Input
Amino acid sequence: MNLQSKESGVGLDYIARIFVLAHNTELRFVSKQFYLASKSPFTRAEYILLKYGRDLLFNPKQGVLRRMPRILCENTALALLGKIEFDEEKDSELFFYSIKKRWNQVVIKILNTFIVKDPNRGVFEYSNTSENGENNAEAAEYKVPAVMPAIDINKFNGKAVELALKLNNFETIRLLLFAHKIIPSYKNTSPEPYEIIAHKRLDLSHISYFEVYELLGKGQTGIIKLLICEGENFKNTYLVLDRESEKNRLEVVKHVLENSVDNDIWDFFYDGLGWASQKGHFEVVKLFIDYGADVHYNDDCALRDASEWGHLEVVKLLLDNGANIHAKNDYALKISSRKGYLEVIKLLLERGADIHADNDGALRWASANGCSEVVKMVLERGANIHADNNKALEFASKTGHLDVVKLLLDCGADIHADNDRALSAASLNGHLEVVKLLLDRGADIHADNDLPLIEASSVGHVEVIKLLLDRGADIHADNDLSFKYAAFNGHLEIVEMLLDRGADIHIGDNDALVLASEQGNLDVVKLLLDRGVNIHAQDNEVLKRTVSASRVEVAKYLIEHGADVGSDRNASFALACLLGNLEEAKHILESGEIIYHEIDRFLIWASQRGKLDLVKMFLDHGANVHADEDRALRGASEKGYFEVVKLLLEWGADVHADDDYALMIASQEGHYEVIKLLLGRGADVHVDGDSVLGGASFDGNVEVVGLLLDCGADVDAEDHSALRNASEWGHIEVVKLLLDRGADIHANDDVALKLASEQGHLNVVKLLLGRGADIHAMDNQALKGAVSYFRVEIAEYLVEHGAEVSSDGSASFKLACVLGNLEKAKHILETVESIHPQIDKLLGWASVHGKVDLVKMLLDHGANVHADEDRALRNASESGHIEVVKLLLDHGANIHAYNECPLSIAALNGHVEIVEILLDRGADVHAGEDHALRNASESGHLEVVKLLLDHGADVRVQKEVISAMNNKKRHRDDMIGYLVNY
Output
């Protein structure tokens, strides 16, 4: 027996049935009642029921939801429910379909439908969640009738809530969460007793970390609170506590602490305290303390975090609640001194912080960061200026803070401490004015065997070297080490200067030439030869080491000027190979006078460069074709050297080496003939889950993709990566081919259409839609993606073909903006209340796309310029939108947000003008240990590097940068040259 109430208007329902059975549309003109019936959802419901029958009505493959979805609307679905006894086995698909379509009235009706289970009908099943979160089907036998829900809301491992979350259908989530409170109205007409079974609480064990993270990001705190209170098995409470503490959402944090039954939350309890302290959220910190948080957790990290970020009131609160001011060797005092937070430092000292902790670390750290006011204060409070061998002076000199160096010297710092280390440190880092000051104050220029000159020469500080030489530095100190360093590092101007000032060009048996040649510094080699260096020194070691380092141009130049390798046959062989002199190399090999331990390395070298004759020669003379996991074959395949690959295979190279890497890399690079050859020799097209096809589709070579398919590659393997990759990268011919070969266009909720839309490939979008892709898949995700990425043409095309977004909220606002309808966008902002929780995210979206008018509109309507740690400014800086950056700064954006991320990320991407704007507005060039300079250097943005150095960036990072660039073989000659000569 179905307990759902019947619809009002039974008469209309009855007439509708007559209308349908009559099979005569003219009947609607007989009377007003028949006319109304013709328009009624009851008529549609009657027609659908008649057409499909009860058993197949909502069958997922044969029912109305599959065959005639357009005829079914929410009212019709309600009418159908009024005509049938709801059966979970037959009708659950309607429940999920209604969630997907946001038919909340249908969802409500189904949730309020209860059925009677008669014990005479036997055992029935219901879903039960065990303690470990697993779903089991438990059988229960009742001796009395049981009134129970018609639908199990946790059916299919929580499909209902998962679907609602995926579609951002928050109203349905609320309905599901409150379903357990529904009490059915049941009039028992039998004297027998009966039992009422309510809906179970919504099982949330299947909700993932990322889904909760997205909810938090969308500001859905109301839903989060309901999940914690009304749901069951919610496993991500710790994430809520962590994020909301960081975001200063006091109400949510309090709600979590009061209502959570997640035992794991207490493992993360103190992380929340740490976040709140770091962000300066006083009320949240107080709340944690009131709930019993231990302020001493993790060595009083809360106090350390609050001190590091200058949150005076939070520091005071923590101290008032017993935080240990001396934790981690008085770290709170040291870190606040480093950052320059005077008021925090004063408070800590007043509360008893030890100014001498860690060898007067507060003074040292303040000096290193140039915080002159802090240095002055701690000295006045009794800090020992000579602590740790006068490290404060050394650090200030090293980082170039002239005012601090002067202050320390005026207060009695020992300029000669640690072998005049202050002068050496300033010289190494190129701080000319500091070097001048130290010399003027009596620093010993010859200290530590003239280390200042040697340090400056090794790095390339021309002006510092001039000053030191003018002041009497000994150019010959430590066997002319400054000269050798300059030659080794390719500092041409400095090498020339030192020679002009009397450096010994022949020192150490012409070491300078050997070092410059080995490093490939051709200009320095030319200069040294012009000045008379001995090219044959050290038994022709110059040319030998040049050849060993594969410096081709330098080797050629040395030979042109008379260098030779003498009687060393190994060196002669290496030289012949390097210069491509095959006959000479062959002659040396056949003479039997060389050692063979290097021949495998030469085989790999020749294979990677396509030198077929050399490869054959090495193989003929015993080179191991399998050396280093058949690296020769892999290298030749990557470069597409067909003849070399063929030769290596004939000599037995293993086509399967390193998981068929040769086939994989050849496919990615599009070398058709090589791929064909490898497959013909047995390479496995299915290796690594058919990822070869996915890689080839990514590259977009249609011939290669066709070849792989012809050889049996699975078109839908590796989670349909081939179609996905080709669509995302706009390879339309590959997309056509894959579809022709049967690729599933609907795979992963039509992700191919979504990706093509996001990436702006209109021709691919047209093709996919023409082949039947679902434009409405995943709640119109294709249109949403196009809008999010500001793909105007694609958005217009999708809208023309029926795609749509919800009529309110951020999606409609974005669509209006993309389509150029700013008036409509403004109207949505001013009239749609639900958009306001999203306005800060919209600001970030507009900023990343450089839409100045939109950014201004959003700011004028209350968007928070500081949202998500000034995400908008970071986005605009990263994307290079100058006018947006200016506008955000004019509206008070924090230039120092996220540890100077705007400057660092602009430098990384080479946006010179934005870097200049940020520096002019006060960005800290030294933040993150000169992270901006490091980013610009490693990314090859020379103009940004120049700008940062001109604004005082610490060139000491250059050694690390140059080393990293050389190690990664990223030979940016201009960049390295500029850095070493700065």
Summary: Residues 41-56 form the longest helix (16 residues).
